[in-house]
Amino acid sequence: MMKRAKALFLGLLRPSSLLLAGSVSAESVTRQLNMPRGVTEVSQAAYDIHMIMIWICTVIGVLVLGFMFYVMFAHRKSKGVTAANFHENLVVEVLWTVIPALILIVMAVPATTALLKVYDTENPDIDIKVTGYQWKWQYEYIGEGVKFMSELRTSQDEIYGRAPKGEHYLREVTQPLVIPTNKKVRFLITGNDVIHSWWVPDFGVKRDAVPGLFTAAWTKTDQPGTYVGECTELCGLGHAFMPVVVEVKEEAEYEAWLAGKKEEAAIYASTIGKQWTFDELMVKGEQVYGRSCAGCHQVNGEGITGVFPALKDSPIALGPAEGHIAILIDGVAGSAMQSFAEQLSEVEIAAVVHYERNAWGNDVGDIVQPINVLNFKQSQ
Amino acid sequence: MAHGPSQNFFSRWLFSTNHKDIGTLYLWFSFAMFLLGGFFAMVIRAELFQPGMQLIKPEFFVQMTTMHGLVMVFGAIMPAFVGLANWMIPMMIGAPDMALPRMNNLSFWILPFAFTILTSTLFMEGGGPNFGWTFYAPLSTTYAPDTVNYFIFGVHMMGASSIMGSINIIATVMNMRAPGMTYMKMPLFVWTWVITAFLLVAVMPVLAGAVTMMLMDINFGTSFFDAAGGGDPVLFQHVFWFFGHPEVYIIILPAFGVVSQIIPTFSRKPLFGYSSMVYATASIAFLSFIVWAHHMFTVGMPIAGELYFMYATMLIAVPTGVKVFNWITTMYKGALTFETPMLFSIAFVILFTFGGFTGMMLSIAAADTQYHDTYFVVAHFHYVMVAGAVFSGTAAVYYWLPKWCGRMYDETMGKVQFWIAFIAFNITFMPQHFLGLAGMPRRYSDYGLQFTDWNMVSSIGAFLYGGAQLLFLYNVIRTIGWGKPIDDPQVWEGAEGLEWTVPTPAPFHTFSTPPVVK
Ligand code: HEM
Ligand SMILES: [Cu+2]
Fold this sequence. Notes:
By secondary structure, chain A is an alpha+beta fold. Chain A has 3 domains: 32-118, Orthogonal Bundle (Helix Hairpins), CATH 1.10.287.90; 126-270, Immunoglobulin-like (Sandwich); 278-379, Orthogonal Bundle (Cytochrome Bc1 Complex, Chain D, domain 2). Chain A is 44% helix and 15% strand. Chain A is built from 12 helices and 10 strands. A 5-stranded mixed sheet of chain A has the order 3-2-1-5-8. A 5-stranded mixed sheet of chain A has the order 4-10-9-6-7. With 518 residues, chain B is an all-alpha fold. Chain B has a domain at 22-178 and 195-220 and 339-500: Cytochrome C Oxidase, Chain A (Up-down Bundle), CATH 1.20.210.10. Helix content of chain B is 67%, strand content 1%. Chain B contains 15 helices and 2 strands. Chain B has a two-stranded antiparallel sheet with strand order 1-2. In chain B, helix 5 (148-175) packs antiparallel against helix 6 (188-219) and helix 6 runs parallel beside helix 8. The two termini of chain B are 27 Å apart. The chains are: A alpha+beta (380), B mainly alpha (518). Protoporphyrin IX containing FE (HEM) binds at residues 134, 248, 251-252, 294-295, 313, 316-317, 320, 356, 359-360, 362-363, 368, 371-372, 377, 380-381, 384-385, 388-389 of chain B.
């Protein structure tokens, strides 16, 4: 880090090198100063109007502030000038009210057409429901029976500096959203707990994910690739840790991927009946815990006093399994403890419950099987 | 009748009903809050110096961003201008004091309690407010720590203080102008403040309504903002921004006023377009009520609403432009000198114009889809609020301090502070435009490696900027204690107005008999 700081500092002394040459890693992205043009009609419309605005502002700025600098040099007292005494001039005052108003009217035209594009969500080829959770995204391919969570893959160790940061630090997820090229994809966006906002700069899509409300956005691109975005509405302490990653694949590849996903779902359904061993569940449970629970209840299960209760030695974790499962399925109304029934599979719920009952010195010793979770769900 | 301040320290400051003493209290309080809010900002910038979580945890980080915003907006900027209003409005309109001196005392003394309550939540179980200064529900209701109740109480208190302060200003200006001081002769600082006071009286109750609804949702089982109970989280944002957008003009209008006093003085030429300045201020105030949802372009409003709010927001550029043109034309053919207050005012014009440009860009809804909630917005509002309100507040202190205490500040030190502040400000906030455009969202406790460089630059600038404030503090204390004594009522060669007719330092009571304005 010190080296980087030094390079940067030296760069600062030579401003042009900071802007043009890349002295440290990740050049192209690091040096980015402007909005990306992106790969969709919408993002390009946004970019174009952004550039129009920059140029208009630059021209006005140079004229107005240029005049001001001229005044500052020409009309200083030290040059022996005496001050004039005028303080009104109807003509210029009318002009500098009317001319900006005209410029605005002209600008309103491209601004309107660009916005109409953003709102053109009719007639999609594919509908994907996007749900914001604290702190991950769920994608559901409507009508396909495919649904999964997309969570940050960067490890806590990288975040807390106990391990070197990878190249894709905070820009990697467990499962990216996958969409095909040349199809109009509509996103139906909502929130599960608090408000999030789903943003992919290269698509020009940013929409708030508001609980209780569905909003629509759309995208269509002919350029395959991986596009990274972020959550852009403050959603609690994990706000910076729920990136959006979208993979755009050629159509055939996409179809193959989707078929694979459907098959996976079918296989998964069949594992519910399987009897898991104590250790298998511990391993699986620890993974699930790390992703879904540790954000609040902490890796050591001790929670944060006054905000998130400890699970270590908690009466619920040590009590009957039923009650423990119930909390995960139903959540706790009016608190940050949400329902995980939709977010986690039966296997994952079983594993994490099992883990919580048998980790950090909790030693209930029983085994919670996926089938128990399924039975509980069905009994409700 | 004339008598001086109480000799007892406590009764002088605690029970004061003198507009000058209360003005002083407001100013010192606001500076203390400025340092506190600045300290929070330093914590934020230190953590963001490089990627990864180094110094603090994400949960504390969001408390820091929230508290920074709240303390700066409600604790530093707003009270600073109320302090200036207290000191200057009676002296500018030839009144002996504020119209309601006891209420004046109360409206000040509420503030330290409000902010003690607010800040103390940081040390409570569950931590301080962690939902941003815009406190969107349901993050601030269902998902908030229990301390949110203290936050709500604190906001109510600040609101009460602001409303009382505003009523006082309105009453003073309406009733206590010296004979001959017609409305269209009032100094622009007075004008901008009256208009601001009306804005405050109009929107503080809306803020109070918003937090009261939160209080009900949290404690009494209502569901104003809870979708599960049939409420609507978006309603919160409409209510908040109906307050929040006028609020940003509450912050900037008095700053316009200050600059409109200073630029003519150091140009030795009357303000150009006085009446158009008044009308422009009034139209900005009016427009500020009808543009609020430009903060919500990504929330999924119907397109008709989106278009309306876009057009209405673009309109603000017209009266804002008029102001800038007027300031520059005031300087045109003047005899300019560049003392510290003038330097800050000129920087204000340049940087505020820059912030106005980014405001124009943000008003274009389709482009705002990309800008919204990124560092681009952070950069925008720091250009208008720091280079706008804070620079003009600093200019005001340098400009009027000699009148207040009869001692001259150190000009060289003032200029040094100006240049550090000006350069450091731009090092801090210019790169934030790039960060935002390149995709870095705001309120992020950590970021991808591609954002590292500009964040480092920004942090270095921020520390420098913080340092410049300490120099300012030192300069002010040195002036009050050991500055070169002066007794010319005029102080500045080109200064016009009643405040420059009273002796220097301004006596405890001024205009016990009203002056006559021709
Ligand atoms: C020409 C004048 C201006 C225009 C057109 C303008 C426009 C905007 C727009 C459209 C936004 C929303 C951006 C977003 O969240 O995506 C915004 C944000 C903001 N503006 Fe301005 N603005 C102007 C001047 C000002 C002034 C004078 C101030 C205050 C002194 C100000 C303070 C703010 C603040 C505080 C925010 C961010 C609020 C938040 O989300 O925390 N703006 N502005
Ligand atoms: Cu606004």
